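EI: anyone free to look at a 172-residue chain?
SC: sure, send it
EI:
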Amino acid sequence: NRIERAVKQSTELIETLLLLAREERKEEHGLERTQPALIIKDIIEGFEPTLRLKPVTTEVIENDWLQVKAPESVVSVVLSNLIGNAIKYTPEGIVKIIIDKNSITVLDEGIGVSESELPKLFERHYRVGKSTSKGSGIGLAIVKRLCELYNWQIDIIRNQDTGLSVTLTFNH
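SC: here you go
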């Protein structure tokens, strides 16, 4: 199952990167619609091995039914990055994914960042805690580019106590 999920994630990432490379607009995708709640379930299942290694739990709060005009691969890449980062940077606590009528918020109890680092998070190759974190630092740059392409809004704010809240607002 893990291998199948990894192949699916790799395929979705390749499709999404090709889409970005061609600069296709959402109007050219026809009427493709995606239900993020179903994707979120798969994403969390994919992170189960990581979640077993530390005292972090996930909670999905579905306040409303949400459907997005975008290919499943695009929605999956964006949400995988946001949820994956929340899990990666939370040493212990809860990662909440809140689904509302037009948005999804990923709220974590992680290490957070300083106010001055917030705008840098979307820069290519920028990584929080460079010496300790793995990765290329392009995940959020890809997310930002996809949001621009689909006219979605993405906001990252510092939580009052600890961690970050990322809100992805979809333009219907």
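EI: The chain has five helices and five strands.
SC: 👍
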